[in-house]
Each structure stands twice: as structure tokens, then as C-alpha cells.
């Protein structure tokens, strides 16, 4: 013996979304993205409780945390934080390269003797000369 049941009706939120013309998959994606962004924002906010030395140990600054929490709600703050850290690391690498390049140029220059250095000094004239 089989029992036939009436076709089930969609839930109330599903009916509202369908009536509004919002595809269910798009609505579900927005809900999940909002939840993920909220969790991400809470994790970044927990970094606010660390002191500056601890933040420095993990390679971020307090300004990075504030900047990440300042992004609009729909965006994930961790992406912003990672981008800021990568920008800083890239700039530090470039400065390091330039310093090494300058050190190589100085090292490759001819060594100067005391006589050469004395000859290149311009004597003072006028009232500054003693």
C-alpha cells in the first residue's frame, strides 16, 4: 500500500526570492559570501587585541589591521591585509636590492689615497677662511 502526499511547497524564503526574481543560486552565493566576510572580519578584529610587537612578529602593523577593517562589508578584509603586506615586502625587497647595488658600486670604485682626498678639497675663500 502506498500513501500519496501532496506536493510540498517551497519554504517561505525560497518563495520570496523566486517572487523577487532573484535566482536561488545567486542568493545562496550572496549569503555564503556575507557569512564568510563576517567571519573574516571577526578574525581580523581579533588581531586588534594583539600588541604592536606581536603584530610585528607576524609581519603586519596596526595600521594594516585598521585598513583591513575599513573595507566595505561585502569584501573580505583578509585579502586587503594580504595585499598590504605583499606591497610592503615588495618595497622592502626593492630597497634591499638598491642598497646592495650601491654597495657594489662603492666597492668597485678605485680606492682613494689620503693625497687624492686632500687634493680634491677646495680651499675656503673669503671670511670663512681662517
TrEMBL record:
Residues 38-66 form the YjiS-like domain. Pfam families: YjiS-like. InterPro entries: YjiS-like (IPR009506). This is DUF1127 domain-containing protein. It comes from Methylobrevis albus. The lineage of its organism: Bacteria, Pseudomonadati, Pseudomonadota, Alphaproteobacteria, Hyphomicrobiales.
Amino acid at each position: 500500500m502506498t500513501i500519496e502526499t501532496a506536493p510540498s511547497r517551497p519554504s517561505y524564503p525560497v518563495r520570496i526570492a523566486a517572487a523577487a526574481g532573484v535566482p536561488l543560486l545567486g542568493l545562496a552565493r550572496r549569503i555564503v559570501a556575507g557569512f564568510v566576510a563576517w567571519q573574516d572580519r571577526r578574525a581580523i578584529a581579533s588581531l586588534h587585541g594583539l600588541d604592536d610587537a606581536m603584530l610585528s612578529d607576524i609581519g603586519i602593523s596596526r595600521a594594516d589591521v585598521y585598513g583591513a577593517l575599513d573595507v566595505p562589508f561585502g569584501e573580505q578584509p583578509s585579502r586587503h591585509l594580504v595585499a598590504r603586506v605583499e606591497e610592503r615586502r615588495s618595497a622592502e625587497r626593492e630597497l634591499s636590492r638598491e642598497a646592495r647595488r650601491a654597495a657594489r658600486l662603492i666597492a668597485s670604485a678605485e680606492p682613494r689615497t689620503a693625497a687624492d682626498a686632500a687634493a680634491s678639497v677646495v680651499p675656503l675663500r673669503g671670511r670663512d677662511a681662517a
